[in-house]
Amino acid sequence: EAISYYRRTKNEYVDIPSPRLSAVLTGTPDQVCALMPDSENGLFSRFMFYKMERQQQWRNVFANPKGERLDSFFDRLGQQYKGFYDQLMAHPEGIQILLQEEQIKRFNEFFSKLYDKFLFLKKNGLEASLLRLGLICYRITIILTAIRMLENNTLTPTKQCNSQDFEIALLMVETLLEHAEAIFLYLPQKQRQLPRQKNHKEIFLDGLPISFTTQEYKNIAKGLQIPEKTAERYIKQFIKKGYLQRIGHGQYFHLLKKVD
Fold it and tell me: At a CB cut-off of 8 Å and minimum separation 6, what does 167 contact?
C-alpha cells in the first residue's frame, strides 16, 4: 500500500507509492508492545496476527531422525514456488482475477456485519484492523486463485475466483480477526481506547451457546452479574442486529457461532 510521511526536521517529505517490504516475525506479547506501543500509528493494523499457546508437554526432538530435513523441505518448496513465480513473470501485462457478483455481495455483507458489530459492542480502536482485513481478504483470494491456476496448469490472463477459494479466504480472515483482538488487549492501557477486558454486553454475547432457552440465558446473565432486565434488553438488541434468532417460544439460536 502507498505510504507517505512528513518529518519536521529538514522538512523531509517521503512518498512511496508502491512499497515492497514484507516481514514475518515471531515473539512474545511483551515484544509486540515494544514494537507497537499503541494502535494509533497504523502499524498494528498492517500486520496479521496469530497467537499460539505454549506446548503443554515435552516434545521428543529426536523423533523421525531419518526423515527429510526442514532445510531440504523448504528448498524443495521454494523451487516449486519459484517455478510459479517465473510463470507469472512471463505475463508482464499481469493476470486479472475477478470476484463473481454473488461473491462481491457476500464480501460486503460479511464485512458490513462485522463492522456493525464492532460499533454496536463499542470495540473502539480495532476498526482500522477490520478495514485492513478487508484488503487482506481480497489479497488472500487472489493468491489462492493464482496458486490453483498454477497447480492445475490453467493460467489465463483473466480468471474468476471460485467459491471454494473465496470461502477459504473469509474463514482465514475470521480467524485472523479473533487473533488480532487477542493481541490488541496486550497493548498498554494508557494508549488504548479498548478496555482491557471485554464489556458485559460482549461477554454475554460470547457466552451464549449456539442454541439456548430463556432460562439458560438468564442463568448465564446471573453468573455474569447482569440484571435480568438488562439481559432481556441485550437479547432483544442481539435479535434486532441479526446476531441471534428466535426459533420458538423461549428458544434462541446464535447466528454468529459455527456448528461443529
Answer: none
